[in-house]
Description:
Radius of gyration: 20 Å
Organism: Echinops telfairi
Transmembrane segments: 81-102, 139-164, 176-195
EC number: 3.6.1.68
Bound molecules: ligand L4R3MLFD
Pfam family, one: PAP2
Membrane topology: Multi-pass membrane protein
Oligomer: single chain
Amino acid sequence: xxxxxxxxxxxxxxxxxxxxxxxxxxxxxxxxxxxxxxxxxxxxxxxxxxxxxxxxxxxxxxxxxxxxxxxxxxxxxxxxxxxxxxxxxxxxxxxxxxxxxxxxxxxxxxxxxxxxxxxxxxxxxxxxxxxxxxxxxxxxxxxxxxxxxxxxxxxxxxxxxxxxxxxxxxxxxxxxxxxxxxxxxxxxxxxxxxxxxxxxxxxxxxxxxx
Length: 210
Ligand SMILES: CC(C)=CCC/C(C)=C/CC/C(C)=C/CC/C(C)=C/COP(=O)(O)O
């Protein structure tokens, strides 16, 4: 119809801005994917990036939290760990739903050699490592009493995990940027819905101290 033709010929400012952002994103992400393969410009740093990948993977965080929960002998410790577990599971669910809805393909230069992935992890938006890094870092800063250097380290770790996703070629810059934002917001949700023996007594009765 004439109306549709007019819309095609006069794309909105938002449409142009989004398309430009995506073009810059693809161009920048390709340039930054310097560890995407052994033979890439920074291929020798790839093992270090893979180590960062493991440090932000869901499996070690879930198993580590479950292990600490099983060993915890205080109510306060169990409460924090139970909420961390809830946070990690909520994050997996939310990222899987968004990845499944958006279905953005991973960058062409990525090698799909990640360990232990879910089927939705063939998609790249948002970066699950970035969401986890942001929320775990915020969780740690808010619930552990740490010296300043360790607090700085927690923030640096999250930033470096996010950066490593782009350097490895796993993600575009916008996947990681949105991942950070989502992880940050998810922490606010968890803080708001904080589980305690008062509002979830059954859950805590399951994990009575040994
Ligand atoms: C152990 C418990 C309590 C539950 C297990 C729940 C479950 C289904 C865990 C799966 C964990 C898993 C395989 C996570 C995938 C992590 C990953 C590779 C994400 C991709 O990150 P991205 O940054 O590349 O998007």
